[in-house]
Design goal:
By secondary structure, this protein is an alpha+beta fold. The chain has helices at residues 2-13, 16-27, 42-53, 132-147, 172-179, 232-250, 298-316, 339-352, 367-372, 396-411, and strands at 59-62, 65-66, 74-75, 78-82, 91-97, 117-119, 122-124, 155-161, 188-191, 201-206, 208-217, 221-222, 264-270, 279-280, 283-292, 319-328, 357-361, 377-379, 393-395. The chain starts with a helix and ends with a helix.
Length: 413
């Protein structure tokens, strides 16, 4: 098998121009979901399927999700199956997403976001890292095995999903509802949608996510006669300060799995209130973003916010309502000794010469959806961590290295 690895690794080194071409073709397609003003991922899925067919997979499944907001009437999800030697019953799955986010302010880009630009090792364009890095690396790892005539121990499944950027209802959620039998708890599931710059982080857990909309209602009046009104801006400020004290004190546990080892509770967005200076606002709306270590229940967090809001109501005379904009309770972490973690650890050591470190993150990925179904999943890639930014970029050297990591995992070394 070591001879096979050397041949496969050498073959991957020769794919650079093909990697650039595939990235260029993917970047040219604005695969935006309807929430972001686009027509979905159909064209990008069709392109990806054409590339997949060159590898002659044993099967390509289309697990499309109906969506009448797009012209074609569905959001595409592809799964390509490549048979291994049968030595291992478990499969290796790599899941990447087809959709992208909008480019944002065009003046912040140095070139057309939908035209690939190369400067030395760097390529630029919307989607080149998030998540075309995963699409391309997982693809060329299979291609290297096919070109060298090497049968991996595992069957390999490459999944390309829609709607990751806007909730995944039409992507992985749909797949797990429609075809969960594809997956086994023994499978090695990799989501290359986050990582670290050196490739040494293997994400096995995520903090729970809670977004709360807080509406404070009082009584509007002229600023010269404040006694005739109830100032909601002052009440909102008091509530924010009270929450700033109550939440960290009530949920003060620490978890060294996370680089920020504590729960965080951040006031973020605020909606406009009155348009002029000399009016006391009768309504204020603001939001808090809570990232909570998994041991705590989000319902307990909401209850503490309600308790604090009740106190501010009694003190100021305002009425305060809470609305959950998003609440995702984190499932149990993927175990440190899960096969996928062990396989990635070995591959990272072989390719990068580094000791990989299982960690948790504060953000959210679709790996949590697998974990909720009892399917251990790991999030891994070598990432420049510039997703969603103008002048999004990716390193060709990183893509080549990650292709080798995937190939090492596929081989079952």
């Amino acid at each position: 098998m070591s001879d096979s690895w050397l041949r496969v690794s050498a073959r991957i080194d020769n794919y650079l121009e093909d990697i650039i071409r595939f990235q260029s073709e993917l970047t040219a397609i604005p695969a935006l979901g309807p929430v972001n003003g686009g027509q979905g991922e159909k064209e990008k899925a069709e392109l990806t399927r054409r590339w997949l067919e060159l590898l002659e997979p044993e099967e390509i499944l289309e697990i499309n999700a109906p969506d009448d907001r797009v012209e074609c009437g569905y959001r595409p999800n592809l799964a390509a199956i490549f048979k291994g030697s049968g030595q291992e019953k478990s499969k290796v799955w790599v899941l990447s997403h087809l959709d992208i986010v909008p480019p944002g302010e065009s003046s912040l880009w140095d070139s057309d976001p939908y035209t690939l630009r190369r400067e030395g090792d760097m390529i630029y364009g919307r989607g080149v890292e998030d998540n075309q890095h995963g699409i391309v690396a997982s693809f060329f790892a299979v291609k290297a095995l096919r070109d060298e005539g090497v049968k991996p121990k595992h069957d390999i499944g490459l999944i390309f999903v829609a709607d990751e950027e806007t909730g995944s209802d039409f992507g992985l959620t749909h797949i797990l509802n429609a075809r969960q039998e594809l997956f086994s708890s023994d499978d090695l599931i990799i989501v290359p949608d986050a990582g670290s710059e050196d490739g040494a982080m293997i994400e096995i857990s995520e903090k729970s996510l809670l977004w709360l909309k807080i509406t404070v209602k009082g009584k509007q009046c002229h600023a010269s006669t404040p006694g005739e009104g109830i100032n909601t801006m002052r009440a909102s400020a008091r509530l924010i300060c009270a929450l700033d004290e109550a939440l960290p004190k009530s949920f003060d546990g620490r978890d060294s799995l996370f680089s920020v080892p504590a729960s965080t509770f951040e006031p973020t967005k605020k909606e406009p209130n009155v348009p002029n200076i000399n009016t006391i606002p009768g309504e204020d709306v603001f939001y808090i973003d809570c990232r909570v270590i998994p041991r705590y229940s989000l319902e307990d967090v909401v209850a503490k916010v309600r308790e604090t809001a009740d106190r501010i109501e009694a003190e100021t005379g305002v009425r305060i309502t809470l609305e959950k904009m998003q609440a995702v309770q984190s499932p149990a972490p993927t175990p440190f000794d899960a096969p996928v973690v062990k396989a990635l650890t070995r591959a990272v050591k072989k390719v990068h010469g580094l000791e990989a470190k299982p960690m948790g993150i504060g953000g959210g990925t679709v790996a949590a959806m697998f974990r909720k179904k009892g399917l251990p999943a790991a999030v891994w890639s070598t990432s420049l961590e510039n997703a969603h930014q103008p002048n999004e970029k990716d390193s060709l050297a990183n893509i080549v290295a990650d292709t080798k990591v995937f190939a090492h995992v596929y081989l079952g070394l």
